[in-house]
Amino acid sequence: MNVTPEQLAALANEVGSLLKAQGMQLTTAESCTGGWLSKVITDVPGSSQWFDRGFVTYTNMSKREMLGVSPEILVRYGAVSEETVREMVKGALKRSHAKVSVGISGIAGPGGATIYKPVGTVCLAWNVGGVIKSITQHFEGDREQVRAQAVRDALQGLLKVCGK
After folding, report:
1. Whole-angstrom distance between the N-terminal and C-terminal Cα of the chain?
2. Distance between CA atoms of residues 153 and 155, nearest Å
3. Do 36 and 28 touch, CB atoms closer than 8 A?
4. Which of 4, 22, 56, 81 is the most exposed place for a label (fewest CB within 10 A)?
5. CA-to-CA distance for 64 and 6, rounded, in angstroms?
6. Assigned CATH topology for domain 5-161
7. Model confidence over 6-37: pLDDT tens digits?
8. Where are the domains of the chain?
9. d(Cα 95, Cα 136) in Å, to the nearest integer?
10. Residue 113 contacts by C-beta under 8 Å, 6 or more apart in sequence?
11. How does pLDDT run across 125-151, given as a tens digit for each residue?
């Protein structure tokens, strides 16, 4: 459950090495992590060689305006859904120069939960050149721990979808 800054830094370095070797750039589309993933990535020296930009879209309106997530998706499935994060990663690629995107939306707590989506529910998606994979995770812990686990899983997922 506990994710250390050192673990996140090591994962970000590994992602950077992989993307740089493949000549690909990354963009992020974050909601519940509020830019934490982009911060971990830009802590890596030389990350400008493989990181294009990050979108922090905390509200539904920002998801629509910045990433083009359709209002119908948000109403039907909610902001915390695989359908929404899949739209987020599509929009991030369209609005950047990257070939790889990652999206995160979740309920970090302590509020915001529903009977169907408890605190700790986080949806993640990855888009590599139009091929999208998504998952829903259920993390334990407080707000900080849920967010740290989401950043960790986003980075681990990048390694998987980019071929490591």
Report:
1. 23
2. 5
3. no
4. 4
5. 34
6. Maf protein (3.90.950)
7. 999 999 999 999 999 999 999 999 999 999 99
8. 5-161
9. 25
10. 107, 119, 121
11. 999 999 999 999 999 999 999 999 999
